[in-house]
Amino acid sequence: MAVLQHELTLGEAADLLSRALPGHRVEILQGRLTVTPPPDGSHALSLTKLGRAFDRAGVVEAGREYVQGVGLWLPTLPEDFAIPDFSIVEEDFRDAHVTKNCYAPDVFRLVVEVTSSNWSDDLGPKVECYAQAGIPAYLVADRKHDVVLLYTDPVDGKYPAPQSFKRGQSVPVPETVGVRVELSVDTLLDG
After folding, report:
1. What is the pLDDT of residues 157-179, one digit of tens each?
2. E-assigned strands of the chain?
3. How are beta strands 102-103 and 97-99 bridged, if at all?
4. In the beta sheet, which residues pair with residue 110?
5. If residue 163 lies in a helix (H) or strand (E), which one and from where to where?
6. Using one digit for the tens of pLDDT, what is the confidence trace for 34-89?
7. Which contiguous run of DSSP H or E holds residue 47?
8. C-alpha span between 101 and 126 (Å, rounded)
């Protein structure tokens, strides 16, 4: 008896993994399937406190929303997408739905990643992908190296060198986000 085999596309494989690994983050970056385990408590608390800071700064009154775990469709390769930890988006971002839970990059004002076991993705492919997508600001709470990096204003699909912030400092959120707020490096790294 002959068995027909169907080779999965990268997108189909990502869908299967998402269903098989609840709580894990499945992304396709530069044509490479990545899977990240659920965040630890400090990681989750960093994102909660980040949301509170943006609430206090009046993000909603500025015509923006903050969201966690919403897909960002990437222009790098046809099936590429990322699921940032935290994003500031235009309030009407749902009108920019591309496919699945992914939205067009032009509605994202700020993307934040708090590093986990996949820290090299946040510091490598995601920097390149977010710059190519034209994301105005990309903030990385790099727990591996105990520093916060802020990439802004991509030109020709590349970010200039990032600003680096150490413990005890605050990160000023760029004006392109639409609100004025300074974020504590210690809170971003520790939750």
Report:
1. 999 999 999 999 999 999 999 99
2. 25-29, 32-36, 64-68, 71-73, 81-82, 86-90, 97-99, 102-103, 108-114, 137-142, 147-152, 163-165, 170-172, 182-184
3. antiparallel
4. 88, 137
5. strand 163-165
6. 999 898 999 999 999 999 999 999 999 999 999 999 999 999 899 999 999 999 99
7. helix 41-56
8. 18
